[in-house]
């Protein structure tokens, strides 16, 4: 997967597999440097906090501690 995915192929609500693929493509596009460099300075303090809280909660709910350290922090072993 890469940022070359056609954004018009992002579609939700058809089935779980399409939703998962679309979410992955959406997040990759959202996390592109150009989007983040434009969006983050425009966010309010509460939006920044809410976003951090939401993403941290998702990881805490679905990652084991070693997965968090390996996948998110990029630490080995």
How do the helices and strands line up, and which of them pair or pack?
Layout: H1 16-30, H2 33-39, H3 45-62, H4 65-72
Walkthrough of the structure:
The protein has 77 residues and is an all-alpha fold. The protein folds into two domains: 1-42, no CATH class; 43-77. 62% of the residues lie in helices and 0% in strands. It has four helices and no strands.
Q: Tell me what portion of residues adopts beta-strand conformation.
A: under 5%
The radius of gyration computed from the alpha-carbon positions, rounded to a whole number of angstroms, is: 15 Å
Main β sheet profile:
none
Order of helices and strands: HHHH
Distance between the termini: 26 Å
The helix/strand class is mainly alpha
Oligomer: single chain
- Compute the average pLDDT: 93
Highlighted features:
mainly alpha; 2 domains; 77 residues; 62% helix; globular
């Amino acid at each position: 997967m890469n940022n070359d995915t056609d954004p018009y192929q992002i579609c939700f609500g058809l089935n779980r597999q399409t939703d998962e693929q679309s979410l992955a493509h959406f997040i990759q596009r959202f996390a592109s440097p150009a989007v983040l460099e434009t969006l983050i300075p425009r966010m309010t303090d509460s939006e920044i906090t809410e976003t951090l809280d939401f993403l941290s909660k998702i990881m805490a709910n679905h990652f084991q501690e070693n997965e968090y350290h390996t996948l998110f922090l990029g630490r080995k072993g």
